[in-house]
User: What shape does this take?
Amino acid sequence: MDGSYLTVTPVACTDSVGAPYEVTLELRRDGDPYGSVGERCGWLLARLARGVEEARAGTGDARRWPDPDDRFPDEEPDSELFSFRYRARSELVGGGELRCQLRTIPLWVPRRGRRGEWRLTRRAFVEAWSATGVGLRAVLTSAELAAFVRGLVEEAEGCLGGRDLARNPVEGAGRGESR
Assistant: This one.
């Protein structure tokens, strides 16, 4: 909202022999390092991308929202779609966070010659925080969130040599939490 630009880039996590197996997200604000978050978050991102696409198509509870831009995979009010933090091997939380929370927002829609009405909309609030506590926020429709997450998944699969993140063999992957 302040005119800053946040870049989110997947970076391969490698095993002891150097083979890539998952991703971490590198954050940059206006080109400067801003944080490193979400170690082993690729599988969760792939699952979220699929969920947003299904919700936009009107599957499940999402169909109760007439506008596809208001459709998200989690129908709980003000729920969190993801929260990625930086963690050191010591398990201490350190620098950086990237999270996405859904919010329901009432908007007044004026009607010409008639009385206006309230309309509920849903938006994804994507927030990034640096180690120093400086935050950025973007407000996205479900179409914008779908494009953002799908782009991250495609880039992550590219840095993993084309491996499909939706079929992650890592034990414990996809528990909804990232280290």
Confidence is low (pLDDT under 50) at residues 169-179. The longest strand covers residues 93-111.
